[in-house]
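Batch manifest, entry 17 of 40.
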Amino acid sequence: MITSGKGPANMLEHKATLDREVLTLLSENDCGGATVARFQENLRRFAAGEEPIVLPDSNTAPAPEAVPVPQQDFAALMNDLIVADARSWGINRFVRNSVSETTVSATDDWGRPRRIVAVYSFINGWNNRGTEGSMTLEFANGRPVCMIFLDRPEQNIVPNEDIVVAYEGGKYTAVD
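Output type: structure tokens
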């Protein structure tokens, strides 16, 4: 718990305490879970000077209304997210537009994806051969919040915010 106080030593103590609390929050909550997604959104709102998300009292909260979920081009979404992440890859090179076998493996109560898995191709930098990988995209409240690559399962990668905003704005809505 952070306490009040003044001076540089107290500021360092506050930072150390905050660091421990954030690590505890992340270690005790799933990357794709609602708690971390709410924390991320509240942090964004705080930085923007907006009001935070307040959890309603469970006794008084109205039931959410079902909203039709439009068809999405999840292969294009996954492709764009991998392209953005691949900019940080040191050795391997993503093969653009190679995303395939895109599967919604879990949905929430409103039919929105909770988890999507896709296969993609990349050039292995060690032997210059084409290789397949897979990526799981976790959602919270209909929002992409976490990417997990098969070859880096211990890393929970936050998706590119610009792509997430574009997704929420309907960029990946499939056209019939």
